[in-house]
Amino acid sequence: MAIVHWPVELQHGQVGLRPLRAGDGGEWAAARQRNVSWLRPWDATQPPGAEDGARTFRAMARDWNRQARYGRMLPFVITYGGAAGAGARSKWPLVGQLTVSGITYGSARWANLGYWVDEQYAGRGIVPTAVAMAADHCWFTLGLHRIEVAIRPENKASLRVVEKLGFRYEGERPRFLHIDGDWRDHRIFALNVEEVGPGLVARLQ
């Protein structure tokens, strides 16, 4: 049975995770617009014939939060307190997104984790910290057993994230996900709760 903890906010140092909100549309769209070329090679796309129709950001946020309340996913935005003029935590800017999806309970108890970050904030340790917080929450609060990350072989920045956190490489899945207009190969990385000791945040320290 799903253990639902939503909404939830997580923080470690100057990195925060909070629920994606319907009111984030303007800030989210601005971040996506200024990072079009940075993100396009890694963005999920719909294969031909599978288009499910355009929907507004507000509708997407509401749907994802509804799914989160049913324990099916965790749609977080990444916030950063080290940005110029960030001020109080409630004012920290949105610098990326982290989504835990495909949450499965029963005998499997696993989930997928994906993320993106604004190019101007890349290389500051924000994403490894966000991934560590989200994974620890999944293991130690939600009771999941396995966290999996799928990364394109060409995505050197994301490969560094899982390497830094000690995710185990499990092999390649040919034409695994539809990304940037075609089916793309992905490398699969995973960790089980027995492998992480006190957790990934502790591992970062």
In short, what is this structure?
The chain is α+β, with helices and mostly antiparallel strands.
What fraction strand?
Answer: 25-35%
**Strand arrangement across the biggest beta sheet:** 1-2-3-4-5-6-8-7
Percentage of residues assigned to helices: 25-40%
**Tally of DSSP helical segments:** 6
Order of helices and strands: EEHHHEEEHEHEEH
The residue-averaged pLDDT reads: 94
What is the first-to-last residue Cα distance?
A: 33 Å
**Could you tell me the number of beta strands?**
8
In total, the number of domains comes to 1
Give me the CATH superfamily: Gcn5-related N-acetyltransferase (GNAT)
Give me the secondary-structure category. Answer: alpha+beta
Say what the CATH topology is: Aminopeptidase
Protein name: Ribosomal-protein-alanine N-acetyltransferase
Organism: Kribbella pratensis
Keywords: Acyltransferase, Transferase
Pfam families: Acetyltransf_3
Q: What does this molecule look like?
A:
Helix content is 28%, strand content 31%. With 205 residues, the protein is of the alpha+beta class. It has a single domain (10-203), classed as Gcn5-related N-acetyltransferase (GNAT) (Aminopeptidase), CATH 3.40.630. The N and C termini lie far apart (33 Å). The mean pLDDT is 94.
Give short descriptive properties of this protein:
205 residues; alpha+beta; Aminopeptidase; 8 strands; globular
